[in-house]
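re: ur question from yesterday

yeah so i grabbed the chain u mentioned. its 344 aa long if i counted rite. heres the sequnce exactly as i have it in my notes:
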Amino acid sequence: MPPTRTCLLLLGLVGCHVSLTTPAARSSEAFTGGRELVDLAELARLRERAELAPDDLDAQWSAGMAHLQASLQGHVELRDATERLLHRAWQLDPQGDEVPAAKVLARFLNMRSSVLDLDAIELQIALYELLCDPRAQARGVAQMPAEQFQFASMGLAAQALAEYGEGHELAAIARVRKLERRMDRRLRAHPDEIDTHTMAGNFELTFAGVLPIAAAARLDQALLHLDIQQNHWEGLSPGARDADVAPNVHSVFGLWLAEGLLAADQPDRAADAYRRVIDLPDQADTAPRRQIVALAEHRLANLDRYAGADALLPVWPAGVSSCVACHSQAATLPTDDLHWIDGP
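ran it thru and got these structure tokens back, copy pasting raw so excuse formatting
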């Protein structure tokens, strides 16, 4: 089987940043501007090989991972083909003895759920249930292996989205509170587990932007976790901070912290966070990185105009855009959901 290095970030804690405000649908044109950012002919060849040999695990996995990479580069029209190929690989190897198809597919389905496309949410929930080892889960939140805690947490988040999508908002809020309590217990036992701080910060920032109950408290918690993450970046698991796989992930999380601080009406701390984003060392010169830096410079020049603005939440980039923002070299990120005030 081919190496699985390119899926490491997807198996970590960043994922797509969910927006429950029904974000605009995204087409490849929005990210590529009609350019071919990957070798589409080679993808077609891999896809044809997989379709001709549906029982060949290597063919499904190789094609699925190639399509996954292309989707994250901005060719989001390949999402359905990616899901089909990874699903077939999972069915051929349901226990993950040869390839981690269940893990990758569960995370990749965030490209749907992050924009409230819940057509596959039951599959996503089922995959996380499969990945949760009952023996490990029985050890309790504080004692279970970190990966098992992550699977259980992602499953709870998917369940909350499903309940929200069905109109059961109170049930979704109850599910989120359960998730928060579990993350609190985990971090009391493992205060230096930076992956958990990352996951907690992402969840809290997401729900601060969309659930009116306790939104300010959730934003405060998100900022606490993301501040810890930014100050201990090297403590993240290697896959979650692999710049070869996701060249812009540090910039994206740094921007989320800065935008959250500005939304919380903390302009001085936000200014420091924006400067840190601009000055991050060893960042690749990618198109998304240039957009992030330009936004940080604009915010710095207009702090008083944005401080405390509710429109900064959910933070940009969100949904599918956040997946592409972390991974892509050349895509242009859509800005129609970016809070921007014209001026200097």
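noticed a couple things. The CA atoms of residues 71 and 79 lie 6 Å apart. also The mean pLDDT is 91.
anyway ttyl
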